[in-house]
Amino acid sequence: MIDKDKLHKALRQMGKKHVKPQYRDQWTPERPTTGYCYPVAEVVYHYLAPKGSKPYVMETGPNEKHWFIKGPDGNIIDPTADQFDEDERVDYEAGKPQNFRTSQISKRGKTLAELLGLTERD
Fold it and tell me: What is the pTM of this model?
């Protein structure tokens, strides 16, 4: 679906300046997906996921959310799951379907798609 090394390289290029303020202190080059779940989910949804996929969001802490995609077959698509420690279980069952904030992909999502060399689907 998405090459992990290529994704990490693109997120390192974007750096912490594109991470929402509440996640900037947690972002590191070693864990470049931290704070990027929303734009990564957008890219997956708009460019890569099978038709019929849906965005999902779940609470992960006070004022913290995690975005991922659920395929039409129920499979979880979450290229940013590695931002969580191995002992932190991500409870995808707690996720709820949620539209993205806008119908068009965000500026961060567009930047990431460009760095990944993705083009929009017809």
Answer: 0.94
